[in-house]
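FW: tagging you since you asked about this chain on Friday. Here's the raw sequence from the shared folder, copied in full. Didn't touch anything.
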Amino acid sequence: MRITGRGLALTLAAPFVIALLWFLAGFAGALLPGTVTPRPGPEAVEIRLIGTAIHYDIALPLTPETRARFGFAASDGVLVQAPDAEWLLVGWGARGFYATAGSFADVPWPEVARAVIGDSSVIRLEAWRDFPLDALPDARRIHLSEAGFTALLDRIGDELGPRPALDSARDSYAFYRARSRFSALHTCNTWVGAALRDAGVPLGAWTPTTQALRLSLWAQGPKAAH
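HL: got it, structure written out here
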């Protein structure tokens, strides 16, 4: 079959058009209210969201409950029991993409394609000292009730798969198998949004990008603050 110049141009443009539609659909999903599990009570616990250009992590305060739940990570080099550690950074993502060493530029294109189509997932744990919000380009506070915080810990614990860590030779952080699958419809930011809704935070139904999640935090509720 002969392919005309116009046909070739449309074929080459199709992935970019699909990506643009996916990106724009994220804004609609951010503004469509999602199902939120009520977690009544005073907003007694502060968590934080730490953002990059394409990804959000959740920072949990290292309360006695948090240290007890994630104490297993100490044997994998995560300084969860260190006296000066005050936050546990929790991230979720595609195994091939997220667990690749180095920067995002180091990720092989086949791993990017696999993440879009569907890949197994991992959770990343890292202990941090206290930090000012303005020290990071995109960090914000979210306040939860005690019940909401416990629900968030439960959700993260339920997501963790079999242990030990996938690679314990990391510097102060470790990756663990996770149970759900990553895809273009269920990204790291979608996972964060669902976890926060389960903790009682009003958010949009689908937040696949950092831009969609930021829009949803701004539009859906007053619990998030810089």
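FW: The chain has seven helices and seven strands.
HL: agreed, and Residues 202 and 221 are 5 Å apart (CA to CA).
FW: great, closing this out.
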